Records
---
Amino acid sequence: MNRILKKISIAAFIAAIFGVLYYLLSLQYPFHWNIVPTDYLNLYFLGLLMTLKISFFSIVLSFAIGIIGGIMKVAKSETLRDLAGVYVTFFRNIPLLVVILLVYYGVGTIFDFPRFWAAVIALSTFEGAYMIEIIRAGIQSIPKEQFETAEALGLSAKERFFDIILPQAFRNSLPSLTGQFISLVKDSSLASIIAINELTQRGNQVATMALASFESYITIAVIYFTITYALSFISAKIERRFAIP
Amino acid sequence: MTSVISAKHVKKSFGSTSVLKDVSMEVKKGEVVVLMGPSGTGKSTFLRTLNFLEVPDGGEIVFNNMKMENNPLILRQARSQMAFVSQSYNLFPHMSALKNVVYPLVKVKKIGKSEAKIKAIEMLSRVGLSDKIKSYPGQLSGGQKQRVAIARAIAMKPDLILFDEPTSALDPEMTAEVLSVMKELADRGTTMIVVTHEVNFARYAADRVVFMADGVVMEEAQPEDFFKSPKTEKALKFLARLS
């Protein structure tokens, strides 16, 4: 109880700071909350749907990349390790915005795929690089005796990996993975650069149409916060569900 | 009596360090062999070459008339008949005690789930843990964990059990409970090779003590003879330090 009170008071303190900022801004900027977001709920809703759609496909794909790459990173074969290593190094050292532009204007031109998939591919390949490192760390955090015990029992390589190592690695990685999923949802806002009508793009549109930029940006900030907060809430639930006693 | 395992001229190096120089050993059915020796003399490495957790650089290991090779099919076959209990982290933390025993029975021994369960419960009771079958390793003491590992080992009905310092991570009280389970196995005629520093276990449970130092077998004797009158200087020194 004490802890909850403490949390609430800290939240109240931060809210108060925002309140002061809001007040100072309102002295120079006339807020029109009666127009935005109320008159444009439909656009925000469409934007939210698009953000969720991009995020969903990208989370699934990047997670797949993470698992495959993470396994490659701990493989016996040096070639596989290097392959995953080069991939990670490549994508961790260029900005996501640039990846999106390259995929859309470059790869997208060659293979002629729609901008939606360009965004999904860019986001998944980029975030996948981080997932690889998370999964690798998850696998390597397992004591080597676990690998040996599994081997000594006569389990096959497949059984060792899927029944013994992966379930433990997944549990170890879950908190970092959720963090990465949350980053991904937020990073999807960069897809607005290739004119995808996701939440940020819609926020921009409303800001221009209604001449109400702050109202619009505050609105999308609140929506983003709600999605990602819900994600961490769900993940905490999953963590508890899978926790090893 | 038939030989369960025989190792001939086993050699193993890590980089430029030669850990096993030329080790040979034969263990017959029902025999309990205790491997002793100063730390870092290759006892554990030797034990681990027997089930090919370490692939030997030279020599030959024949287990149940089968020549050990670094081949998944042969190893799976051999390991399903040769249990291994190590110092710690033996159990899979994401499985209950029962599941830890059932899982390899189902996967490796291809026994039906319900039958495996009955067998697992029987083995867990034998090591005195019938009230802990639903517990997870994280909820068990170190001694209880090792006993589950032993239950898993014997449930596989192996022809040989390898113990790699099974009590060295435990406090004295837990050591005693684990050793008493091992002693019982020995009395039942289980063939085992045990790397341990527990003199009393060696004295009362072993048929033979093998003393290793510097990557070779220095001497082999019956426990009474070994502890009363060791033949080598090294063994004498080692025993003096133990007591």
---
Amino acid sequence: MRRLALIAVPYLWLLALFLVPFIIVLKISLSDYALSIPPYSPTLDLSTGWQGIKSFFGALDFENFTFLTTDDLYWKAYLSSVKIAVVATLCTLLVGYPIAYGMANAPDHWRPTLMMLVILPFWTSFLIRVYSWMGILSTEGYLNQLLIGMGLISEPLMILNTNTAVYIGIVYTYLPFMILPIYATLERMDASLLEAAEDLGCSRMQAFWLVTFPLSRNGIIAGCFLVFIPTIGEFVIPALLGGSDTLMIGKVLWEEFFNNRDWPVASAVAVILLLILIIPIILFQRNEQKQREAEG
Amino acid sequence: MRRFTWFNATSLTLGFAFLYLPMVILIVYSFNASELVTVWAGFSTRWYGELLQNEAFLDAAWVTIQVAVISSTIATVLGTMAAYVLVRAGRFAGRTLFSGMIYAPLVMPEVITGLSLLLLFIGIGLDRGVLTIILAHTTFSMCYVSVVVSSRLVSFDRSLEEAALDLGCTSMEAFRLVTLPIIAPAVISGWLLAFTLSLDDLVIASFTAGPSATTLPIKIWSSIRLGVSPEINALSTLLIAIVAVGVITASLVTKRAALRQEAEERAAERA
């Protein structure tokens, strides 16, 4: 009896506030836009009994999805989200790997402090961290002031409201997600392997590429997924740092919902976004599982 | 053979400069006397004064704290129950669906979570306000709590619980006297995580908040869309300071607790 209650309470909560809402999104994505409250049709009318249910299902169709394929705004937004996420993930890897590597080689007594310094920004408000770049990157911002002051440029650079600013924002906010898994694999690595490689005549550079880098593969893969997956549906960064030509699907969904008030299309956008995310999520899960099995 | 080379030192210095410089600049310029955010015109605490007089911000901060405390507390209870079910309840009908529902919100884009909850609230005719934000925040943060707590439960020595049962505890007593104290650090960090997630959330709150309830991130959002403002710099500085103090204190406390526990265990071994 007690066991049943223990299972039932969180179960019912998640059913009601996670699964049911999701089914509603699916249903509305198959409905039509209507000038009414709520702004879609059909609505399920149970008072007419079986006939009502039948006509309800009869009125659902894939029209919104066909609409998404005909209007190239959506195609472009999906493609450009994936492109931005891929490029940003690679940039984060390039910035994050040397930091993780430096942490793993740091003296033992520094490591807890370094770990804390990596984690601390993660607890700080995401919104504020993105906002802090607005002052740096704007035309009269600190970066342009510095560069002009140093005489490196004469005209201020346009960085804010471009894709470059979006990349900087993503690298900055998701960097801890990349550093931590890579650091974890590097720290666990058996250092005597490097000694062996050097004894066998490898240069330090060769030892790095032949031993260290392949052994940190799992950390790299985990870090890349941890950055890639949330970046695809990102809204705050493109909305604050990106320009009007920065197309990301999270922003499109937001505008479709709040500005155009087209709920059926917003829901269809959400469903397709999830379909795109399923592949990386499954790959990520597989990778985690493989790693767990390898460890014992 | 780990060597801390010049390359390591440089990459750490540049890396941490990149991570911290934007926040340092924000903090420094929050003490700027000028109304023009990017032009330094001397030290002043003027913007902090104006911030403390801004009723709208204070109201929003109060709503945010209420939402965060209530939602993270419910989420901790539900998340701990869910973790217990995942690790201990064994097989039951619908277990796969259950664990799927625990992990899915962790990877679900916020725009989708927000949209789906909003459509639910409208569908059942619940007025949007503080209550709906609390429901939304509880739902996604309970999943984070359950992941944190279940990782502790997995590594937990079950024979301790069995010993308590053998010595005549009821299963409720065994949970309260043995299990809970052992998993307490994980439960506390789960609560802290849920609390900060709720404080921080803009997207889900924007979907689920009605005109009657505005949280601090929503308020910050609507004013920074227009550009950088000195008042927001001051507010950001306060938030950064609170988080930094909180995180550093928490880590010192847990470190000291770990040391004490180690000492006790050593003493027990000797005895």
